[in-house]
Amino acid sequence: MENLLRGLRRLVRRLGVDVVRHRPGGRELVRLLGRYEIDLVLDIGAHRGDFGADLREAGYRGRIVSFEPLREPRAELRHRAALDDTWSVLPYALGDRSGTATLNISGDCGPASSLLPMLPRHRAAAPRTAYTGDVLVPVRRLDEVWEQVTAPGERVFVNLDVPGCEAQVLGGAGQFADEICGVALRAPLVPLYEGGTLFDELLALTRDGLGLTLMSLEPGFTDPRDGRMLRCGLVLLREDGPAVGEHVPAQAAAVL
After folding, report:
1. Based on the number of CB atoms within 10 Å of its own CB, is 190 exposed (0-12), middle (13-18) or buried (19 or more)?
2. What is the pLDDT of residue 17?
3. pLDDT along the chain (256 residues), means of 10
4. Predicted pLDDT at 45
5. Distance between CA atoms of residues 177 and 10, nearest Å
């Protein structure tokens, strides 16, 4: 199987396709979610629903609320969530202010789309992600929709796939920031979007600002020209919650 995967990667490179998308919603993450009794995942920048689908495949059975403002990927996302009673979809981008904003549409139909201009370093490393257009989308603050999407007592984990806008989304949590029990995000090691927040600041924002503990650091977007990693994945969780190891929710039992 490993040789087959390597062969497939070589084939897609020869065809000129850049494999840059990292999908972090696997068994290791679901074990962490179970250990810290997470029962609601807010998937912000959900695109076609890969993250939610990976969580389900890995055994997560809690609620998922996905946010995706782009119509095309949201249609596939809704299709994926349609037969899942605990997976809902909302058509918003999230940020630090409500209203509307221009979303730049990436050539990969979603994952690299951003409210911020893409920098040449990103385009050179992954040409297929260059912007092909833009669209006006509705934007909400997280604290504006918090009570609509959460229930009392739920332990909330936030997955952020919002290139360059992670700090704005977290800033929009307002009074509910202390109720965020965990975060997954993609942290740039070099500037990829104009005005985007980099690794050190994102780590300080989540660890020092939100009081979370770094649990996982995963390789991500790498420049195929020189092998330099441009972005990595971070998972952080709040350790002052339920006693670790005393209880594992049924939703995660299948993977432990």
Report:
1. middle
2. 36
3. 42 39 70 97 97 96 97 96 96 96 88 95 94 96 97 97 97 97 97 96 96 95 95 94 47 38
4. 97
5. 43
Sign of CA dihedral 94, 59, 182, 190: negative
CA–CA separation, 15 and 222 (whole Å) = 18
CA angle, residues 106, 108, 114, in degrees to nearest 5:
30
Contact 100, 74 (CB under 8 A): no
User: Exposed (0-12), middle (13-18) or buried (19+): which is 67, by Cβ within 10 Å?
Assistant: buried
Q: What's the predicted TM-score (pTM) here? A: 0.84
Q: Which distant-in-sequence residues (6+ apart) come within 8 Å of 8 by Cβ?
A: none
HSE of 17, CA atoms in CB hemisphere, 13 A: 9
Helix (H, G, I), strand (E, B) or coil at 134: strand
